[in-house]
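fold description:
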Amino acid sequence: MPSTLAKIKSMLDNCIGKNLTVTSHIGRKKVVKRKGILSETFPSIFVVELDHDESAVERVSYSYTDILTKNILVEFEGQEAGLLGGTIANEELVENAEDF
């Protein structure tokens, strides 16, 4: 696993249990926003438990390469200023991963 992906995983490991919004681009002019909680991280993917009110699906998984290639946008809610800042966008994850 390249260094950048490992650092993105490490940053997400520190945010397990926090509320987040994932915006994914699923096609031509189609964008899906999902809110939930970061529940688990694995070597290649991370799992988000979705809000039951907003989605019929309970869990969804994404790969770290989705963040790196900007296929998804991850924003954490209510994050205090610190290692990750207020919100995390793809660019910030990649930039912060290089400084990690």
Q: What stands out?
A: Residues 80-89 have pLDDT under 50 and may be disordered. The two ends are 16 Å apart (CA to CA). The first strand starts at residue 19 and ends at 27. Helices lie at 3-13, 64-68, 90-99.
